[in-house]
Design goal:
The complex is a heterotrimer of chains A (108), B (218) and C (549). Chain B is 79% helix and 0% strand. With 218 residues, chain B is mainly alpha-helical. Chain C is an all-alpha fold and 549 residues long. Helix content of chain C is 65%, strand content 0%. Chain C has a single domain, classed as Cytochrome C Oxidase, Chain A. The chains are: A mainly alpha (108), B mainly alpha (218), C mainly alpha (549).
Chain lengths: 108, 218, 549
């Protein structure tokens, strides 16, 4: 564990940012951002914004409250790996569901 | 404090620094497996939300966003108080450590209290999955009703598992408060407080994702 | 146990050290509340041996039934329970824990020059969790068994089965946490407790193998744990996650289950490969060939192993495109395993090879693993898999790996380190005979099953067409020989603990830190912390002196 003592004002700043982001995610949820098509993909913007905000909040907690910003490479690797593995689970599982409807015959 | 040093260093470690680093790495590896543990539920959620988006949205609308957002704020506060407790422990400020730890417990208890209120409301509306489930309150029937039941199954499984983690964490924090009161923690040794802090922040992070996924489905 | 030194010890004959970890303390509680990784390893040795013979008993009943074509020994329902419990007990209570919890626990601190693992109390907790998980399994058996297959496929396991799914699920859930905590302990130990000078690339390959295994245990086991929990919840509360009648998808269960259970097979084989690396180098008296390639291959297997789980689901209803990707990735994951086989072979080449018992097991492993691995590739090919899926071809494939490879490596390692653990030598002649009996029995049991599977005999059936009887009889005959082969070591190993010749600290002699302390080691492992300045496999120099008092 790092011996670095994080200043209280950092904690307070992160805390306020977390509250602001919480308000933001609730506010955005009330709006309908639509699902624009970008490069042939339909992007559900509400979902993307919600996930982005949640990831930002999580990152703030991880880096500052959990001191990962001040920790060694090994701890950072452990944290990153766990999320990468979760991503592998979800992405590959979803790839099955997403591709079930695809025809295996070209042109049909 | 040479006495504290001698009693705190476990015999299989060469130095206190090695012991601290090992504790820290151990707790992080434990948290990594917790990410995957909850992750299985998040994967299940992702699949069914993609498959049954409309039923999920209808079911989600029945959740109280105000209570959910308030609970999110409560947990964020508890993360702050926990971080302050770790900070106080690193500086050896005995009374502050206890105050911050007890605040964390109080906020955790408030969170659980709100969850009890929410669960009760579900019970009254027959939204608990199982034989008593009825999608009547959601104005859904047929397939959509069973899809909504899957939503509520996930709701209870995920928030239930999360609440269980808090129920386990609270007595641990109370135990820390007792030891802190006895002067156990200071600049030389505050590792148990730090490690518990990591656990508690992790529980907060799970909720940071649960809240939008369960309460804010558009 | 090992304190009985003969009165007539001649000068120059080895003597047991005065104080070692076995006689350091007496009484049941000194064992049940121990924090010594070596004692915990022996607690595991007793438990996994018991579970191995329980799983083996089910195997005996299965092979007995399959001697004749009609299902005349037991009913279909009972037969379902036999193969289910054989699988559950063998996979979760023998193959996954055995090498890590017995050999890994005992050896890793010794191999890295540490006094114990990073978390001794968590190590003990791991054992208790294992025992509690096993107790739930015994309860399941006593209450009438389980018939879902070790794979718990839904909705049969969640809705239709009338057997003890929940108690079995709980047993596996708890045993899973035993596995997770062991992995956690190994990762932290290997990172933080290596002796001064022991850099990563000076570590024994046994340690690398267990490190890679631990990564899988941490990242994979929690997913199957939560999945099994969902199965239990669905059974109790009728949630409907995996029940098509309630909007659930049974294939989702398979995705979540196999996300762990495929990497789980690497949990079962990587430690075995670690053992083989140690045996091959010692009994070729030669530095292992391609050390860094073997080390990196272990990590590659751990990582790639997480990307291939869909090859268990080719015919499940999974999308064809997903199947194609999983098939291609499955070919990729074979490469690091093949690299290891090439490296072991290259180590043997021009080595000074001797055929002590551990080496017989290691040579058997290399051959049988090659067959098992190659047939895995056949199964990874989509078109071929359609033909042989759910047949005895698959059964033969995984038994070549799990029994022909892992169990042989476990026995080889047990024999190799037996003098270190007990301070006694086992009787070499009996041990070599057993190794040969096991090899012959194993091949007679499982090779016919490749043919049976290719000819179309399905797995999990207790009756079969007449024309398959000859091969089935061969297989059952082989099983009886294999059973005898497993029983003989139980007898002579137990015998040796009291009457075996006393071993020197390094009887082979082998390189490695564990051989530089007494046999058995003292509780604290080494009198003083060793310092390392050379790589571990240098067989060109005479063995170093032990660190004895």
């Amino acid at each position: 564990m790092s011996e670095h003592v994080v200043p209280i004002r950092t904690y307070v700043g992160v805390f306020l940012a977390l509250l602001v982001l919480t308000c933001a995610t609730v506010a955005v949820a009330r709006l309908d951002l639509g699902e624009p098509e970008v490069a042939g993909l339909r992007l559900p913007l509400n979902v993307i914004v919600a996930i982005t905000i949640a990831c930002a909040k999580a990152l703030l907690v991880i880096l500052f409250f959990m001191h990962v910003k001040y920790s060694g490479r090994l701890v950072q690797l452990v944290v990153a790996s766990s999320f990468v593995w979760l991503f592998i689970l979800i992405a590959i599982t979803m790839s099955d569901y997403v591709s079930r409807g695809w025809s295996i015959h070209p042109g049909i | 404090m040479p006495d504290a040093h001698a009693s705190v260093l476990q015999h299989h470690f060469e130095t206190l620094q090695q012991q601290k680093e090992s504790s820290s790495l151990g707790m992080w590896v434990f948290i990594a497996q917790e990410v995957l543990f909850f992750g299985g539920l998040f994967a299940t959620y992702t699949v069914y939300r993609a498959m049954y988006h409309d039923a999920f949205a209808a079911a989600s609308h029945h959740l109280n966003v105000t209570l959910g957002a308030a609970n999110t704020a409560v947990l964020i506060c508890s993360s702050l108080t926990m971080a302050m407790a770790v900070h106080a422990a690193a500086l050896g400020r005995r009374k502050q450590i206890v105050a911050w730890l007890l605040s964390t417990v109080l906020l955790g208890a408030i969170f659980l209290g709100v969850k009890v209120v929410e669960y009760r409301e579900k019970w009254e509306l027959h939204l608990i999955p199982g034989p008593s489930f009825s999608a009547h309150a959601l104005h859904l029937e047929g397939d959509a009703a069973s899809h909504a039941q899957i939503y509520y199954s996930l709701y209870f499984a995920m928030t239930g598992l999360h609440a269980l983690h808090m129920i386990i964490g609270i007595p641990i924090i109370l135990g820390l408060a007792v030891f802190a009161w006895k002067g156990r923690y200071g600049p030389e040794w505050s590792t148990p407080v730090e490690m518990t802090g990591l656990y508690w922040h992790f529980v907060d992070i799970v909720w940071i994702f649960l809240f939008p996924f369960l309460y804010l489905i558009h | 146990m090992t304190t009985a030194t003969p009165a007539t010890v001649l000068p120059g004959e080895p003597q047991l050290p005065k104080k070692h970890f076995l006689n350091a303390d007496y009484g049941v509680w000194s064992w049940l509340l121990t924090r010594d990784h070596k004692r915990i390893a022996l607690l595991y040795l007793a438990s996994v041996t018991l579970m191995f013979f329980l799983g083996g008993a089910y195997a005996v009943l299965i092979r007995l039934e399959l001697i004749t074509p009609p299902g005349d020994l037991v009913s279909s329902e009972t037969y379902n329970k036999l193969f289910t419990l054989h699988g559950v007990v063998m996979v979760f209570f023998f193959l996954i824990p055995a090498i890590p919890a017995v050999l890994g626990n005992f050896l890793i601190p010794l191999m890295i020059g540490a006094r114990d693992l990073a978390f001794p109390r968590i190590n003990l907790l791991s054992w208790y969790l294992y025992v509690i998980g096993a107790a739930f399994t015994f309860w399941t058996i006593v209450r009438g068994g389980l018939d879902t297959g070790w794979t718990f496929y839904t909705p049969y396991s969640t809705v239709f089965s009338n057997t003890n799914v929940i108690s079995a699920a709980l047993g596996i859930f708890i045993a899973g946490f035993s596995s997770i905590l062991t992995g956690l302990n190994f990762i932290v130990t290997i990172h933080k407790m290596r002796a001064p000078g022991l850099t990563w690339f000076r570590l024994p390959l046994f340690v690398w193998a267990h490190y890679a295994t631990s990564l899988i245990q941490i990242l994979g086991t929690p997913v199957v744990a939560v999945t099994i929990l969902l199965v239990a919840l669905e059974r109790v509360f009728h949630f409907g996650f995996f029940d098509p009648n309630r909007g659930g998808d049974p294939i989702l269960f398979q995705h979540l289950f196999w996300f762990y259970s495929h990497p789980a097979v690497y949990i079962m084989i990587l430690p075995a490969m670690g053992v083989i690396s140690e045996l091959v180098t010692c009994f070729s008296r030669k530095r292992i060939f391609g050390y860094s390639f073997i080390a990196m291959s272990s990590l590659a297997i751990a990582v790639l192993g997480f990307l291939v789980w869909g090859h268990h689901m080719f015919v499940s209803g999974q999308s064809v495109y997903a199947g194609m990707v999983f098939s291609a990735l499955s070919f990729l994951v074979a490469i690091p395993s093949a690299i290891k086989v090439f490296n072991w072979t290259a180590t043997l080449f021009r080595g000074s090879v001797s055929y002590e018992t551990p080496m017989l097991y290691a040579l058997g492993f290399i051959g049988l693993f090659t067959i098992g691995g190659l047939t895995g590739l056949f199964l990874a090919a989509l078109g071929l898999d359609i033909h042989v899926t759910d047949t005895y071809f698959v059964v033969a494939h995984f038994h070549y790996i799990m029994v022909g490879s892992t169990v042989m490596a476990y026995l080889g390692g047990l024999h190799f380190w037996w003098p270190k653990i007990t301070g006694r030598l086992y009787p070499e002649w009996w041990a070599r005979v057993s190794a040969v009996v096991i090899f012959v029995g194993f091949n007679l049991t499982f090779f016919p099953q490749f043919v049976l599977g290719y000819l179309g005999m399905p797995r999990r059936y207790h009756f079969y067409p007449e024309e398959f009887q000859v091969l089935n009889v061969m297989s059952s005959a082989g099983a009886s020989i294999l059973g005898v082969g497993y029983l003989i070591p139980m007898v002579y190993l137990a015998w040796s603990m009291r009457y075996g010749k006393i071993a020197t600290p390094n009887p082979w002699p082998a390189t490695g830190l564990e051989w530089r302390t007494s046999s058995p080691p003292p509780t604290e492992n080494f009198r003083e912390t060793p310092e390392i300045d050379v790589e571990v496999y240098d067989y060109t120099v005479p063995p170093k002196e032990p660190f004895l008092a």
